[in-house]
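Hey, I was hoping to borrow your eyes for a little while. I've dropped the whole record in just underneath, so have a look:

——
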Amino acid sequence: MTEEVAASEKGPNAWVQAIAALVVVGALGGGLYVIQQNDAKAADKPASCRLDDEDKKAAEKAKAAHRVSGTQLCTALNRADLPTLLGTPQEHALTAYGSDGSVRTAGAAEIPSPEGTVQLDTYTVKLSRSYDELPVAGMEDLLNEAESKTVLGHPAVLYSSRTFAISFDLSGSGKSDTGPGGIARALVVAPDTKDGGGSYELAIWRQDDVRPDDTALLRVAQEVLPLIPGWTTAG
């Protein structure tokens, strides 16, 4: 998750704002993701995917249910050449982690939605999996700036999502403010060539709110998706 810290002086009551981004991705699944900041810029080594006791339990549960876990998605995403694929070869992962949540539908059903996230100086990248029964084909009619794609022989849709900037007053008043952020570009990909339901979603956005590079997104997809356990290679 991204985090940037900026300070602006306003007389004796200086506001120190922690800027985060909310990125609406997985629009059909209703996912809402909070991007929060960890100051890891001073770290000498790239971040690795954390795995605590709760993560281990979630991974075991996912394995028993024949599902991918958030830690597995994080591991697939957090490759040594990820910065190069993004076009920022001088950078390295500042934070990397997986999570295993779910999305509740209107019918009260719980749909597993694990995800892995890696943050660099310029980009944040998220890889998620939805176990709903919705095919990818047709999503382009429901998403912003959407276009149909074929990725590694799988049906896919490329689309845009708006981010929102949230600022917190860390001086103790508890005040916060929100405003428009930048654009995230996301790629929804069917887990198999038959597009029988469910999807992977790879999303990228920039800390400077510049529109992300679609070429970088597609490069990452080409290299990362085949590393996901259970990925079906097109014949």
Q: What stands out?
A: The mean pLDDT is 78. The CA atoms of residues 3 and 37 lie 3 Å apart. The chain is about 15% helix and 40% strand. The first helix runs from residue 53 to 64.
